Amino acid sequence: MDQARARLWREGDLWAIEVEIDGVPYAERDYADVASATHAIAQILRQQAARSPDLDQEECPHCDAALDLVACSQCGVAAFVRTCEHDVFTRPIRIVEGQLYCRACRP
Ligand SMILES: [Zn+2]
Ligand SMILES: [Zn+2]
């Protein structure tokens, strides 16, 4: 992440946020109060700043399934991983018993 912009504004009774990271709009959501809204902005930025591109997988050599951004359910680290059924065991973040785990958090 090289650059980020966050916007916070009021929409009726709610607070809306929009976060743009490296020129890509990331999220637009509504919150009931300003504290939750600013907390969400901080969390999104922290997660993105901590995201390590080394976890990202290359596209699958066997098929043209898209990559998807998934996050570890334990530590929150995120990576682009393959969505197809090939080489499931080499995936940096994968589902174990219904939860997503990165390599470090895998049981
Ligand atoms: Zn594949
Ligand atoms: Zn993890």
Report a brief summary of the structure:
With 107 residues, this protein is α+β, with helices and mostly antiparallel strands. It has one helix spanning 34-50, and strands at 4-11, 14-21, 24-31, 67-71, 78-82, 93-96, 99-102.
Question: How does this structure look, described?
Answer:
The protein is of the alpha+beta class. The chain is built from one helix and seven strands; from the N terminus they run βββαββββ. The chain has one helix at 34-50; strands at 4-11, 14-21, 24-31, 67-71, 78-82, 93-96, 99-102. Strands 1-2-3 form a three-stranded antiparallel β-sheet, covered by helices on one side. Strands 4-5 form a two-stranded antiparallel sheet. A hairpin with a 6-residue loop joins strand 4 and strand 5 (78-82). The longest helix has 17 residues, at 34-50. The radius of gyration is 16 Å and the shape is elongated. The model has no long low-confidence stretch (mean pLDDT 88).
What is the fold's blueprint, element by element?
Elements: E1 4-11, E2 14-21, E3 24-31, H1 34-50, E4 67-71, E5 78-82, E6 93-96, E7 99-102
Antiparallel strand pairs: 1-2, 2-3, 4-5, 6-7
The chain binds zinc ion (2 copies).
List keywords for this structure.
107 residues, alpha+beta, 3-stranded antiparallel β-sheet, two-stranded antiparallel sheet, 7 strands, 16% helix, binds zinc ion
